[in-house]
Amino acid sequence: MRLAERIGKTIYFNFKKTIKKIIKDFDSIAIQKIKKPCVGVVGEILVKFHPDANNNLVSALEKEGAEVIVPDITDFINYCSFDDIYKHKYIDGSFKNRAIAFIASSYIERLRSVIRKTLKKALIFILIKLQKTWQKSV
Fold first, then answer.
1. Taking a C-beta distance cutoff of 8 angstroms, is the pair 3, 22 a contact?
2. What's the CA gap between 41 and 39, in Å, rounded?
3. At a CB cut-off of 8 Å and minimum separation 6, what does 125 contact?
4. Whole-angstrom Cα distance, residue 39 to residue 53?
5. Taking the complete model, does pTM exceed 0.85, yes or no?
6. N or C end: fewer C-beta atoms under 10 angstroms in the chain?
7. Pairing of strands 38-40, 67-69
8. Is 39 helix (H, G, I), strand (E, B) or coil?
């Protein structure tokens, strides 16, 4: 919950520290070798994220033993930002809206790049990569 505590007052460097702490905590979770079918939830934004709109699809699938993959909400936010950028470029949209959207999208991607770089250093992903390399050599 460290990220939730900082979300309102986070600046970039605090965000980096918080992500590193989250990954460290993540690495300390015991790994269970359970094979589950992966099911992705796709569709309209409300259907993907609101349990009442999708009849509690995620809970139902998890009860049946599936690992449910739901895309993150930042992809939707970026999609909305790119809409303003596209409108300005091709449909005579507002330059102000384009500028705000570009700044917001750039900042989101900057934060996401911190997460991606830190995840690459996570112990679990290093172990998975080593295991795949070892399996190819055998």
1. yes
2. 7
3. 119
4. 18
5. no
6. C
7. parallel
8. strand
Cα atoms in the 13 Å half-sphere on the side-chain side of 110: 11
Per-residue pLDDT of 74-122, as tens digits, reads 888 888 888 888 888 888 888 898 889 888 888 888 888 988 888 888 8
Amino acid at 91: I
Q: How many whole angstroms separate alpha carbon 3 and alpha carbon 82?
A: 26
Q: Report residue 37 as tokens.
A: 């079918």
**3-state SS, residue 133:** helix
AA letter at 23:
I
Concatenating the DSSP letter of every residue in 64-118 gives TTPEEE---HHHHHHHHHHHHHHHHHHS---HHHHHHHHHHHHHHHHHHHHHHHH
Residues near 118 by beta carbon (within 8 Å), at least 6 away in sequence: 16, 19, 20, 23
Alpha carbon 93 to its chain centroid, in Å, reads 29
